[in-house]
Design goal:
Helix content of chain A: 40-55%
Strand order of the largest sheet of chain B: 4-3-2-1-7-6-5
Radius of gyration of chain A: 29 Å
Oligomer: heterodimer
Structural class of chain A: alpha+beta
Largest sheet of chain A: 7 strands, antiparallel
Distance between the termini of chain A: 42 Å
Distance between the termini of chain B: 83 Å
Number of helices of chain B: 22
Radius of gyration of chain B: 27 Å
Shape of chain A: globular
Number of strands of chain A: 14
Largest interface: A-B, 95 and 86 residues
Chain lengths: 616, 574
């Protein structure tokens, strides 16, 4: 690899992020895809793997007597602090990483070299996992009012839209093309969500190129067509997700927002979600707070507020709730501007990077906290998706549009994350979810006031790698194990029942078929003994008692360990190469569970060690 | 005093009751000596005759009244009955702010009635005489008076220690409460120290609270002691008996830690008022650590500010966090947890004995010793063990509940000695339960019930300030024990943690700010919708029970049935 100036550095120290006193001595390796740190400690040889694509910034700090510190911040919120003995080595590592972390060609991304050893068919299956047409079918589309339009078949109208777009039946190609010319990046209004219960829908588009006075007949007709696609509604809400000031400022650049006078029967609404630059700064500030070394409660709360992050999260939630309410009130919405813009746009100009997807994921988490039974998946699912959005290990989140993805033949050359997640779905299930539970049946109504204080800092995400901060016992894992156990027991019960029936039958049938039954009995006896069912009830009971050793007593130690095992269990070797797994291992010596430097001299690693021994 | 003198108006018809998150209900309001009742009237929104409100008046923290005189027209007074005045449209709203942080509104027709009701509630809720309180009148049918009062005798706790070491003895030198008025009759002290020495040592400690055993750590035989500050004073007085008492605890060459819950500065200043701290020169084996914990008025104000912020609906998201920060409650939680961890660490990791004290030794001292035991001792994390801990380390140890919990966060009365130390303790235990969701046998609901009962209760458990007062008031003879009620099988079920599984290890919590959360279940109890969280809890319960059901069935009946089945037996014998 021509970019690696220094493939291996010895005697590097990896600092513990919380207590700087603790550091692990080891060797640093740079490979084409990963930064790897292997500890010298002979029993463990603990490894820390970081994908180049996860690196968000590298900082070389002033050399001290002990060496040259290098700080690596990752997009999945991991922070790695290394001390390299020689300044020159550090510089070489620094220069190499700067290049490796900023690939210029898509082909350099990990997903093009990542090979989970699936055959072609499995790969194709993976890509068919989420079928948008099927999603629309689920919503009841196409129907009398909505249809698929092929107007964008060669990406001729809008290159950032997919080829198949759902539009009102009454919108002719002429109207669509006309409307698209009046919209930023030609993103004309297209269907996003349809509610078949009341014909209400959400459409989305970019901002109109209205400037101060420009009009477009076709665009006005387009919105009319959308309104008329819901016969029960008299008007259409147009929601602009920007603060009004920003929208007005855009008019000077020939863009702007719909003039209510020109469009009949629309209601215009601004929702002040700040732009990507504000959001990026906000996230940045919040992460700085997370990085503070043993902050006081005040430092933390003050910093969290100052970052404004939770305020933005709430603004986004408010917007979502407003739209959901309108939808319930049987109206129409043409969803505002630039919302989807940044969704796939995760590469390239740093100024264009925005945490929109992080915010979406966090909003889902905030909802999960308020509605614990409503989601089929758990927190880990969200965290792993976030991880893989930036890992570039799977092709799903590459490029900016379907067009680009097709040109790059993403589906033929990379693998789909959804198939990977599906394979390990057991790890991502919410044990409290039941498809027949009331919380899954209806729309969720999150509380807005006065419960805005319910929005919480998500340490599971932003302090994801500081395992000592998190609850030591995972309720989710425990309940999943309980569920599994219940199922097993029920199955065993069935086997037993069957066996009982057989035995009774045998008794009835008498000696005639005894030889046959004997065979069968042997068989059953064998299978039963493997299940330890033929033993006495006491033993069965004690077997039950020993069950929790799989969860609660394991939970006595760090939840981190559970995570590690999960990853070992759930992940293919290649995923184990990502930093998830490494974090799990790292945890074991991570932070003293007894917490922040409040305590006098002691080896705080002991606690978890002790616990680990016990679990083994 | 007769209660009837305090009740100016006993019943009012057509009163509208509203609380946050509940539909308003109209009914008849009725005041009795200890309760405020509202039963809905026919034609109202509720079922006729249903009691919609049954509020212990002791639970009322603040009464706010607002009278609207809608009609400026007053009917001529000549034949004016109160009813006429009422027809003129005057009415009043009483806002009841309760100690459990609930807020209720009563809309009362008639200005006079409104004012009467308000002043009656005010008078009844501020009756300060212990013997007039409801526990002395409450006689539930299914409980016996003596039940629950002697569940956790110190004798029993001592026997557990005695089984492992003979270094300690149970002394009854305080049987008539003369040596220390705030200690119980029995205390556990070093076996080698005579009662006489103890009496002298007691004179050297504020309020006579000489060092006694609080916890024995069976893993390594170290102990946690608690006391009040030594009365060194400006002249640096010494007390040989106190030095002997503490010296006996440590073997030759052993080191102990004194955790002072005041700052070094504050401890030094206390000398000016006759208090102080143990000087190194007189106690050479003991190393002092200062961990300042807030108590008294600043803590009460922190509580008041937090509750204010939680109830401020106008607060926007971006100002909420700075309000949360400025009330400093979470800082107090963090400090209390850290200090308890420090004490636990000294015992378990440093293998050193610990003496904990602040000034009086009845507030932050008990907070630290009790919390450290929850962290260290799996026994304290069970339902029964936790009750025993509260009995031993809070109630008998002389935390002045009557003074500290006289008023809660809403009261407009001048603050006297109120301070939510017990609430702070419950909050810390909640933090532990959040970080170790399987390790505590009880759930949030028990902590909430304890908070409610500490401030206003049907039971006598939290009455008075110490055992001496309880004896004088004959609390144990004339009131029911909270524990008797909680431990009834049906009741107990509500407080158990369905995920509990015995965890023999020390539970070391994280005290980083990211790990400390606001206890929403308490501070937002009446504000946030609890339905979805309740559903989640029920679902958890269902899952755990579902596991137990087939297990029981298969392990128990089915298998035994199959074993008792002759065919099965022959099959097994084969």
């Amino acid at each position: 690899m021509e970019h690696i100036r220094m493939p291996k550095v010895e005697n590097v120290r990896l600092l513990d992020r919380v207590s700087s006193r603790k550091a692990a001595l080891g060797t640093l390796y740079l490979t084409a895809t990963h930064v790897i740190f292997v500890e010298n400690a002979s029993e463990t040889r603990k490894e820390t793997w970081v994908l180049h694509s996860q690196i968000s910034s590298i900082e070389k700090q002033a050399t001290t007597a002990t060496g040259c510190p290098l700080l690596i911040r990752c997009k999945n919120f991991q922070v790695i602090q290394l001390i390299i003995p020689q300044e020159r080595d550090c510089h070489d590592v620094y220069i190499s990483l700067i290049r490796l972390a900023r690939p210029v060609k898509y082909e350099e991304l990990y997903c093009f070299s990542f090979n989970p050893k699936l055959d072609k068919e499995e790969r194709e299956q993976g890509w068919k996992f989420v079928d948008l047409n099927e999603e629309y079918n689920r919503m009841g589309i196409p129907n009398d009012y909505w249809q698929i339009s092929d107007v964008n078949r060669d990406y001729g109208v809008c290159d950032s839209y997919p080829t198949e777009v759902y539009v009102p039946k009454s919108a002719t190609a002429h109207i669509i093309v006309g409307s698209s010319k009046f919209r930023s990046r030609r993103r004309f209004p297209a269907l996003s969500y349809y509610c078949k219960d009341n014909n209400a829908s959400i459409c989305r588009s970019s901002q109109p190129l209205s400037g101060f006075s420009a009009r477009c007949l076709e665009d006005e007709q387009m919105l009319q067509a959308i309104r008329k696609a819901n016969p029960g509604s008299d008007f259409l809400y147009v929601v602009d997700t920007r603060p009004k000031l920003n929208a007005m400022a855009n008019r000077a650049a020939g863009k702007g927002y719909e003039n209510e006078d020109n469009y009949s029967n629309i209601k215009f609404q601004f929702i002040g979600i700040e732009n990507i630059h504000v959001m990026r700064n906000s996230l940045q500030k919040m992460l700085e707070v997370c990085e503070l070394k043993s902050p006081s409660m005040s430092d933390f709360l003050w910093g969290l507020e100052n970052s404004g992050w939770l305020k933005h999260i709430k603004a986004i939630m408010d917007a979502g709730i407003f739209i959901a309410k309108v939808l319930i009130e049987k109206d129409w919405i043409s969803f505002g501007h630039k919302f989807n813009h940044r969704y796939g746009n995760l590469d390239g100009d740093p100024k264009e990077i925005s945490p929109v997807i992080d915010q979406f994921i966090e909003c889902v988490w905030q909802l999960m906290e308020q509605f614990p039974c409503a989601f089929e998946f758990n927190e880990r699912f969200l965290i792993h998706i976030q991880h893989h959005i930036y890992s570039c290990q799977f092709g799903n989140f590459l490029c900016n549009s379907q067009k680009e993805r097709r040109e790059l033949k993403i589906q033929e050359r990379t693998y789909s994350l959804w198939a990977h997640l599906w394979k390990n779905r057991a790890d991502y299930l919410n044990p409290l979810y039941r498809s027949n539970h009331s919380q899954t049946q209806r729309t969720l109504y999150p509380q807005m006031t006065p419960c805005n204080f319910l929005y919480k800092f998500w340490s599971g995400m932003y302090n994801r790698f500081e395992k000592g901060l998190h609850p030591r016992q995972s309720v989710t894992d425990y309940l999943m194990a309980v569920k599994e156990e219940t199922q097993q027991l029920e199955e065993e019960l069935e086997v037993l029942g069957e066996r009982l029936a057989n035995l009774q039958k045998m008794q009835l049938n008498g000696n005639k078929i005894q030889s046959k039954q004997q065979d069968r009995g042997k068989q059953l006896g064998l299978s039963a003994s493997t299940n330890s069912l033929a033993n006495t009830p006491q033993e069965y009971g004690s077997d039950l008692k020993s069950f929790p050793s799989r969860s609660p007593s394991q939970g006595d130690e760090d939840s981190a360990l559970i995570l590690t095992q999960d990853n070992l269990k759930s992940s293919d070797p290649d995923l184990s190469a990502n930093s998830d797994q490494e974090s799990g291992v790292e945890d074991l010596s991570c932070r003293s569970p007894s917490g922040g430097g409040c305590l006098p001299s002691e080896d705080s690693g002991k606690d978890s060690d002790e616990a680990v021994c016990l679990a083994v | 005093m007769e209660f009837s003198e305090l009740i100016k108006t006993a019943t009012v018809e057509s009163v509208l009751l509203a609380g946050t998150g509940l539909p308003a209900v109209r009914g008849t309001l009725c005041i009795t000596s200890h309760h405020l009742l509202l039963s809905s009237c026919p034609g109202g929104d509720g079922q006729p005759g249903t009691v919609e409100l049954w509020l212990l008046i002791r639970n009322v923290d603040a009464v706010e009244k607002r009278v609207q005189n809608l009609g400026w027209y007053q009917p001529p007074r000549t034949n004016g009955s109160p009813r006429d005045t009422r027809l003129a449209g005057s009415s009043g709203t009483i806002t009841l702010r309760c100690k459990d942080l609930k807020v209720l509104q009563l809309e009362i027709p008639g200005m006079e009635e409104c004012l009467n009701i308000a002043s009656s509630i005010e008078a009844l809720s501020s009756v300060d005489s212990v013997m007039m309180m409801y526990p002395f009148f409450y006689r539930p049918q299914d409980l016996r008076l003596e039940e629950g009062w002697h569940l956790f005798p110190l004798e029993q706790y001592f026997q557990k220690i005695a089984a492992q070491t003979n270094q300690w003895r149970l002394s009854d030198l305080n049987r008539d409460f003369t040596t220390c008025p705030t200690y119980p009759a029995g205390v556990i002290v070093p076996a080698a120290v005579s009662d006489d020495t103890l009496r002298r040592a007691a004179r050297f400690r504020q309020g006579g609270r000489f060092p006694v055993l609080s916890y024995y750590h069976p893993r390594n035989g170290t102990v946690m002691l608690r006391s009040s500050q030594p009365l060194t004073g400006p002249n640096r007085k010494r007390c040989p008996e106190d030095e002997v008492l503490l010296g006996t605890v440590l073997d030759e060459g052993e080191r102990g830690f004194i955790i002072d819950t005041r700052s070094a500065q504050a401890a030094k200043q206390a000398r000016m008022t006759g208090g102080g701290t143990e000087p190194k020169s007189s106690y050479p084996q003991w190393k002092r650590l200062h961990r300042p914990l807030e108590r008294g008025r600043p803590l009460q104000e922190s509580f008041i500010k937090l509750v204010e912020a939680c109830n401020d609906a106008s607060l926007s998201m971006d100002r909420w966090l700075s309000r949360l920060e400025s009330c400093r409650w979470l800082s107090h939680v963090k400090a209390a947890l850290s200090t308890a961890c420090l004490a636990a660490q000294c015992l378990d990791r440093e293998e050193a004995s610990v003496l904990v004290h602040g000034a009086e030794g009845t507030d932050t001292t008990l907070l630290v010793t009790a919390l450290a035991q929850v962290i260290l001792d799996p026994g304290c994390r069970t339902m029964v063990g936790f009750q025993g801990l509260l009995e031993r380390e809070w109630i008998e140890a002389g935390h002045p509940f009557h003074l500290r919990c006289a008023r809660s966060a809403y009261s407009h009365a001048r603050l006297k000695q109120e301070a939510p130390l017990f609430l702070l303790f419950l909050d810390c235990v909640w933090q532990l339960s959040r970080q170790f969701p399987f390790s505590l046998e009880f759930g949030e609901s028990l902590l909430l019930a304890l908070f409610d009962n500490a401030y206003a209760s049907d039971y006598g458990t939290f009455l008075c300030n110490n055992e001496k007062e309880r004896c004088l008031c004959k609390v144990k003879e004339n009131t029911h024990s909270l524990w008797a009620w909680l431990n009834q099988p049906e009741e107990k079920k509500k407080y158990l943690n369905p995920l509990y599984s015995h965890n023999p290890l020390v539970i070391w919590p994280s005290v980083e700010p990211q790990s400390i959360q606001l206890w929403q279940g308490l501070f937002f109890r009446w504000i946030r919708p609890s339905q979805y969280l309740e559903e989640a809890r029920a679902e958890m319960q269902r899952l755990v029970e579902a596991k137990e059901a087939p297990a029981k069935e298969s392990a128990g009946s089915r298998l035994s049935r199959s074993l008792s089945d002759p065919a099965a037996r022959t099959e097994n014998e084969r």
